[in-house]
Amino acid sequence: MNDRASECPHTHFEADVSVHRLTDEASGIVSNFIAEMSVRCTDCCEQFHFIGADAGHSFVRPTVNVGATTLHAPIAPGVAPMPARLQYEAPPRSFE
Ligand SMILES: [Zn+2]
């Protein structure tokens, strides 16, 4: 965190999102779609990190890079099937 970032209330944001379409090299058939996202404050340029995802890479669950500044999320076209259960959690009191 830089000096400017430590005093910034972080009220304006910019996100980079890219979508990768992975295909089988021989057949050309699409095997996976992956969305990657990063977020930063446009006032102080502080990069945000994602919370709760494991570091690494997966084609079945969201993961983050080392430092958690990029979210890698497997995606698929269309509407997802109805979930078997819903889970809601209260936010923590502080992100510090
Ligand atoms: Zn900021």
Write a concise synopsis of the structure shown.
The chain has 1 helix and 5 strands, in the order αβββββ.
Walkthrough of the structure:
It is a single chain. This protein is mainly beta and 96 residues long. The protein has 1 helix and 5 strands. The chain has one helix at residues 3-7, and strands spanning 13-23, 30-41, 54-55, 63-64, 71-75. It is extended and about 55 Å long. A 5-stranded mixed β-sheet has the order 1-2-5-4-3, with no helix packed on it. Helix content is 5%, strand content 33%. The chain has one domain (3-75). The structure holds zinc ion.
Give me the Rg, rounded.
Answer: 17 Å
Q: Can you give the mean pLDDT?
A: 92
Bound molecules: zinc ion
Percent strand: 25-35%
- Largest sheet report: 5 strands, mixed
Shape: extended
Low-confidence stretches: none
Please provide the count of β strands.
Answer: 5
